From TrEMBL:
InterPro entries: 2-oxoacid:Fd_oxidoreductase, THDP-binding, TPP_enzyme_TPP-bd. Keywords: Oxidoreductase. Residues 56-203 form the Thiamine pyrophosphate enzyme TPP-binding domain. GO terms for biological process: cellular respiration; small molecule metabolic process. It is an enzyme of class 1 (oxidoreductase). It comes from the Bacteria. Its EC number is 1.2.7.11, 1.2.7.3. One of its GO terms (molecular function) is 2-oxoglutarate synthase activity. This is 2-oxoglutarate ferredoxin oxidoreductase, beta subunit.
C-alpha cells in the first residue's frame, strides 16, 4: 500500500516550521510537493541523499518545509547552485524546484545550458503561466491575450513551451503532467530522478488568485477541471492533427534518450588529467 499522508508528513516535513503554509488555498504547489514525496518514497532514498534547491517564487518555499538538504537560492539561479552541488558530490540526488518565471525568464539561460550539458540532475518546473508571488505579472508562458498586472489590455507576447524548449536544448528526459493528474506527476518525477542525465518535469498548475481570477477562468476547482478537459496523452496526441491539438496539453514522456552525462564526462577528464600528471 502507498504511504499515508500522515506517514509522509511525519517523515519528511520540518515540524518546527510554521504551518499552515504560505500558499493560497487550492494552490497546485502542494500537489507537486506531495508528488515529489511519493516519488522519493518509492525510490527508498534517505533524506541525506537528497538535495532540494529552489529559486524565488511561490515554489521557492518548498525547501523550507521539507527536511532534506535544502537551499533557497536567488531568483533564477536554482540550477546554478544545483550544478555546483552535483559537481562537488555526484553521489547526491539533486532536484531543482522552480516556477515558470524563475526557470525560463531570468533563469532561462541556465535551463538551456543545463539541458545542453546534460547535467545529471532533475528540474521540476511548476508552470502556472504567471508570476504569482510578486503580484501577477506576465511570464514567458503567459498565453497571448491574457490579462495580467503588466498586460491590463491583453498580453501581446507569445508563450513558449517549456518542455519543447528542454527537448530541443538536449535534455535526456522531458515529461509533462498537470496538477490534476497527480498520480502521473509522481510517476514522472520518479522516472526523472533515476534517469542518467538532465531530466525535466514540467507540471502545469493553477494560479487561480493571480491568473484565474483576472482571466475569468474561475476558482481552483474550475482550473483543475480545465486541465482534465484539455489534457491528451502523448500516445493520443500522435494520432491528432495540428488543428485538433490547439488548446490541448500533451501529458506524458516527451523525450527519453541516452546521452553522455556531463558529470561522468567531467570525472573521466579529471582522471585522465591526473594520470597524465602522475606519469610525468
Amino acid at each position: 500500500m502507498p504511504p499515508s499522508i500522515q506517514a509522509l508528513t511525519h517523515k519528511y516535513f520540518r515540524h518546527n516550521k510554521r504551518f499552515p503554509h504560505v500558499w493560497c488555498p487550492g494552490c497546485g504547489n502542494g500537489i507537486v510537493m506531495g508528488a515529489l514525496l511519493r516519488a522519493i518514497t518509492r525510490l527508498d532514498l534517505e533524506k541525506d541523499e537528497i538535495v532540494l534547491a529552489s529559486g524565488i517564487g511561490c515554489s521557492g518555499r518548498m525547501p523550507t518545509y521539507l527536511d532534506f538538504n535544502t537551499l533557497h537560492t536567488t531568483h533564477g539561479r536554482a540550477l546554478t547552485f544545483a550544478t555546483g552541488i552535483k559537481l562537488a558530490n555526484p553521489a547526491l540526488n539533486v532536484v531543482a524546484i522552480m516556477g515558470d518565471g524563475d526557470a525560463t525568464a531570468i533563469g532561462g539561460n541556465h535551463l538551456i545550458h543545463a539541458a545542453r550539458r546534460n547535467l545529471n540532475l532533475t528540474a521540476i518546473i511548476i508552470n502556472n503561466s504567471i508570476y504569482g508571488m510578486t503580484g501577477g505579472q506576465y511570464s514567458p508562458t503567459t498565453p497571448f491575450g491574457s490579462t495580467t498586472t503588466t498586460s491590463v489590455y491583453g498580453h501581446i507576447e507569445h508563450a513558449f513551451s517549456i518542455s519543447e524548449l528542454a527537448v530541443t536544448a538536449g535534455a535526456a528526459f522531458v515529461a509533462r503532467s498537470t496538477v490534476y493528474h497527480a498520480a502521473l506527476a509522481d510517476q514522472l518525477i520518479e522516472q526523472a530522478m533515476i534517469k542518467p542525465g538532465f531530466a525535466v518535469v514540467e507540471i502545469i498548475s493553477n494560479c487561480h488568485v493571480q491568473y484565474g481570477r483576472r482571466n475569468k477562468i474561475g476558482n481552483a476547482i474550475d482550473m483543475l477541471t480545465s486541465f482534465k478537459e484539455q489534457a491528451v496523452t502523448v500516445k493520443k496526441a500522435a494520432t491528432m492533427e495540428e488543428e485538433e491539438l490547439q488548446g490541448k496539453i500533451t501529458i506524458g514522456v516527451l523525450a527519453d534518450r541516452d546521452l553522455p552525462v556531463s558529470t561522468d564526462e567531467y570525472k573521466r577528464i579529471r582522471e585522465q588529467a591526473r594520470s597524465k600528471q602522475e606519469g610525468k
